[in-house]
Amino acid sequence: MENTNNKIKAAIVGLGAVAVILSLAPLPIWKLPVVANAIWLVKVITLIIILRDGSITDAKPYNILMLLCLPIVLVGAMFKIMHWPGANMMLILSLSGLMVIYAARYAFKPRKDLLDNLKVIFFCSWILAALNHIMHWPGADVLQMLATSSFIGMAAVVIRKLMQQPDTDVSL
Q: What is the rounded average pLDDT of the residues 69-90?
């Protein structure tokens, strides 16, 4: 049963990596809402598989701080959509806070492997790309490419781990 679960997880993660690569191609089919939503869903499921059993759940103080930043991100995004004052400050502080908290959690982690390195690169470059895009600052495309590259690397590492240990459940 666990062997089948690992193969299914590896297939989903591989599909997520393919979806990320294909979404970079400037084809008109990616603009269709059904296709765009399907690709987005595959990416989210892949991220959940990659981060599901990660060490984020072990670090309770970091989780609490991150959970305090997330509502500020949502409120800041709503303010930005409505063009209300204070949106930029909320987004800059909350997204920067998320990035600093995640980087601190990574820095104080006793044992780091390749997947941990790729996770921190992905998370930080993804947040910086989003912040640069929202604020219309330059460099968002380069950061997005870095985030995409690290996402594909994470998918490759997870697939390798899932395929190397077919008899046991892999804790990422």
A: 88
